[in-house]
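Usage example:
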Amino acid sequence: MGKRIGIVGVPPLEVIRELNRNRYTIVDLDEPQLQHPINLTAKYMPKVYCAVLRTVVLNVMHLRLDKIYIDVGPGKCDCALHVATILKDIQDVPIIRTRNQDQEGYGTPICQSHLPLLEKMEDITRGVQSVDPYTPCQPSEPTAGFWGVPPRDFSILSLFPDTTHIYGWTRCMENKTPADLTLEYYYNPDIPTIFFAQSFCAKTALAKHLATLHPRALYMDCDVQAGSSGRAKVEAFLELTKR
Amino acid sequence: MLLADFGTSYFKLLDTDKGAEPEIIPTRALSPDFTADLATGHNAKRRSRKSINELTALARGGRKLIDDANFTLLDCGSRDIKYIRFQGNEVADMGWNAECGASMGFTIELLAKYYDINYSALRIPETGFSITCGVLGMSRIFDAVVNGSSETEAVAKFVRGIARNGHRFTGSPDRLYLSGGLCDNALFTGCFPCDLIPLGRFVLLEGLKEYRAKQR
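Running the assembly step on the lines above writes:
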């Protein structure tokens, strides 16, 4: 039976290439893999913490894995560095810390495509598990922007029009250069943009700052799930800034 | 056409065919099968043929009623607070606080009934409590009373804390427009540290009227 390897963040291409070569099953630990309540992680970490990293711990608590690669460099965050220590202490599985500083740009066709935003996000996060080049696709004319990381709760993405372009760290993910700060800082000032970050993530500061620089922007953060007020803010912003 | 703003404690209803003033009806008196044609607020999706979200209604109503390209409008409801800020006739910012700003309006009404207080007769206090939530803020009243404050003095400080929190929530503007039932509470409106302009309880209904006019 093939090995099951967990990944956190965007490990370097050489790691993914090796996992693909061995035909190992890759499990994205940043995404919810089970239905268990997230509060079970309170045994190991504070409840007030990034919901994505709490999800990582929840997954690791319940999944059988042979090894975990966790990116802890400038392409991820300091919180992941500390979560790597927690994982090492609560599991017997080998925990491999990586520092992805890949510079080879793969391009960002999905971020600029016609696909619904939810599908764009799913394709990009799934793309982390492969080193294959992207299939070229026709870019759309953008009418809205989503800047930020893939949210813990993807349902909020269904509120955006299909002509939403993706910016921020998610664009870096697709480009396979997660530590490229210049690309992360980039936004389009001509389209209304929502600057999103997970609550309690260091990127909240950058999201809020860039939202103040952008002429038509809304800053928002969400914890585990997007509540009705968060959804209403997105709906209202997109409707009221439409031209 | 029946337009409705389904608030948590009261719903505001306007029958555009009758040309009469809007009605204010306690939500608990609402018949289970009542349905509006166009609505906003809690339960609007369930109780209307077409619903729009409250921030959209607030923004549209504010733009209709306020003759200024730059303004900040705060709506204080029973259960939550929300605001919209326009800059150069464009939406510049917005916020909706349903958790940390919870139950402010509801708590103010509850306290008046419990302590038998007439807010219009209370002096605006020099200082207040630091409050971000109506429910949690009540413990400050109990502490103050235990430490020798009168009930009315403690409640007045509580109301001041809620007003100040609402002002901070909107980014502390010099001039603030206010929507909702608390526009009629002189103690509450007097506690804002800025030029406050109350617009009354029907701003969201005005937003629904605007939405309807645009659809035609």
